[in-house]
Amino acid sequence: MRPTLTLRHYTHDLISHSHDHAQLVFGLAGRLDFEVEGVGGEIRPHGVMVLPFSTHHACGSPQGSHCLVLDVPDEQWLVQSLGEHADASRRLLDQPARVLLDARQGQLVNWLAGSPLQDPLIAQQGAVLLLASLNGPAAARHGSRRLPFGAFNAHIDQQAAYPLQVADLARLADLSVARLHARFLAECGQTPMEYIRARRLQMARGLLRDTHLPIGEIAGRVGYGSQSAFAAAMLREFGSAPGALRQLDQAR
After folding, report:
1. Helix, strand, coil distribution of the chain in percent, nearest 5
2. Global pTM?
3. Which fold has domain 149-251?
4. Percent share of the chain, pLDDT over 70
């Protein structure tokens, strides 16, 4: 297998699968929502999602997004093409991660996105340059001990109807609020409050789909005292008002 670089446009249609190769997804425009092995996150410009071999993931973009996607060949290609960089690239591709690019790395991604990617030489050399650049110290990648997203999700789900504080999640992670904020940005591209809001709205969408509860009651169950504020939040998150989302999801 040769490396391939492709430009892709993602929409609200959910993609859920895994690959027999590793993949890097570089954000160019818009926001691409990811769930990788049960952990949510997003990719925006200057962000990269690392998807190791056979990692199951789902993604979609309610407002549309453009990405540069690198499909990475096998171990033999890494060794032959990256030389002394192969070990660092192997470690990079060993576990799911969200990487934040610096300005120069972002320029490289944008330059490649404007290049004739169908040319095998461009694809080969572009893949090598991208992987080598990610092996440098400038890429901000989270450490091996990930945040306890399972505990976060359980706490948010149990307390969704009540005011939720970032300090509550910080205590669960045994981190300061400032450190938690930085780790959230590095691991899933969101602030803690954005994560809480998104989790509440996903819960609301499930209630719209799976129950006949009035929209006002669902709003209250996920912490919104105003039905109009709830409707505005759902519109921003999913591109449709609650009533339209209920019709759409129940029709599927």
Report:
1. 50, 20, 30
2. 0.60
3. Arc Repressor Mutant, subunit A (1.10.10)
4. 95
